[in-house]
Amino acid sequence: MQRVQGRATRQCTAPVLATGVPAVWEPPFQAAVQGWWSQLIAWAAGSSADTQIGYIRFGFSIGSEATINCTQYLEAANGGGGDSAMKTTWLNAYGTAASYLLGQVASLPSHPSWAPMMTVNMGQSLTTFPGGTDPSWATGEAQILLANQPFGIGTQGLENGAPNGTVASDPLDIQNGNACTGSNCCSDNWCNTRSMVIGQVPVIELQDCNLSNLGGGGTDCLDSFLAGTVPTNGQDQLTLAQVFLLSIQHGTTSAEIYYGDLECAAGATCTLNAQPQISYLAAVTALASGQPMGTSALMGSAKLQGSASMF
After folding, report:
1. Whole-angstrom Cα Rg for the chain
2. Are 216 and 271 spatial neighbours (Cβ–Cβ below 8 Å)?
C-alpha cells in the first residue's frame, strides 16, 4: 500500500483489487460492514466513555475516505456504463450506509451523546469524466448526509502545497467557489460542501492532509513555499496556521491533527525537526481558541463560525 497526500491508496491491478478494495454496493460487503457497525454502535452507547465521545467517523471505502478507488475495475464490476453509472451506484450505496447508521443510532434505548459521521470526497481517477475528478460526488454525498440528521460531515485532506509537483492549495482554490471543476477545487471539494451544511449538522470535521514538517510544510501537500502562499516575512512555518485558520473560518467545529504536531506544540521532544516549537504552539493555540491570528496570511473570503475543538 502507498500513501499519497495523507491518504491510503493501492496500485490498481485486478489481483490487488481482489485483496480488499471494496465494491461498496455489493450485498455481501454491505452485510459484513453493517454487522460491524451495529456492534460498534451498541458498544459505544453502552460504554462508560459514551459522554466523552463527540462523534464516531464511519468509513466508506478504504481508509474511511468516501472516494472511489481503482475506478476502472469497479466500473466493470458495476456492469459498465462508465462514470455516470458508477456515480449513481456509489451515491445509492452511500445513502444506504447513512440511513442504516442513523437507524441503528435511533434504535438505541436512549440517544447517545455522540453523532455518527461520514466523510465526503470527489469522484477520483474517473475513466470518462473530463480531468478524471468530478466534484459533484462530494456535493451529492453532502446532500445525503443532510437528509439523514443528526449526522456529522467530515473531510480528510486540507492541503496547501505541491504534491507530485502540482500546486494544490485550499487557500488559493477556495476562491474558485462553485466554478471549480475538480482539479482546481479545494481538497475533497470541502470548500463548497461547507456552505451547504453549516448550522445544519452537529459536527463539521476536517483533517490536514499529512503530518507536517518544519512547523507547517517542507514536503508534499503542506508547504506554503511550494504553494506560493508565503507571507512577506518568508516563514514557511506559517503553513499550519494558514490551513488551521482557513478551516475555522469556514465552519470547522472539530479539527483532527496529527499527534506529532501536537507533541511539538506542547513543547515535548519534537520528533519532526530540531526547530523551535513556537510556530507549532502558535498554530495549535490559535486553532483551539477559535480566534486565530494572522488572517492576512490567507486568501479568499472568511466566514468565522465559532470555535474549534481538537481530537
Report:
1. 19
2. no
